[in-house]
Give the backbone structure.
Amino acid sequence: GNSVTQMEGPVTLSEEAFLTINCTYTATGYPSLFWYVQYPGEGLQLLLKATKADDKGSNKGFEATYRKETTSFHLEKGSVQVSDSAVYFCAPKAAGNKLTFGGGTRVLVKP
Amino acid sequence: NAGVTQTPKFQVLKTGQSMTLQCAQDMNHEYMSWYRQDPGMGLRLIHYSVGAGITDQGEVPNGYNVSRSTTEDFPLRLLSAAPSQTSVYFCASSKQGPETPLHFGNGTRLTVT
């Protein structure tokens, strides 16, 4: 089955710092890749996605590129804000609609 | 547009009690699923459904039942609650297809004592 490896954290940063969260996956075929974000007390929200190799997903200043050769989908943001404090989940989507989630990476941005 | 609605938000049960977690979506999504979220373990798939009348097991189905009598509703039943089922439960839905994202409810926090 599919699996996802991402750093658990917490990742603690100062405001305006650069953020990288690594994600590698194993999957059958060529899955679509998603990043979700979970703010405290809420459900998961789609942050961005990429559906084929070399695609770059972007949203709210976050970016991630689908790297087929390294089976990776690392999330980056150039200048984080306090409001970016959340838990971030990487998730490949295989055939049959099932998403496989990593353990999530908690990010804390301090002013 | 309500999206995915879960009730209740919080629930406390005693061991052995039963209950149903409700999930409804108004987006005409074919696919619906239940996940549980535990610290350090991410989200694990319990059961899922690709349409009315069709359900299947996910990664951790034991102790849970589901049914899908309508497109909109996908309740999750705990027949005899155990402390190991203390968790946060999320319902999620999507259109069919490899590129469609899941839409999540806000979760139900369940404590079994």
In short: The longest strand of chain A covers residues 86-93. Residues 87 and 106 of chain A are 4 Å apart (CA to CA). The interface with chain B takes residues 4, 8, 31-32, 34, 36, 41-46, 49, 51, 89, 93-99, 101-104 of chain A (CB under 8 Å).
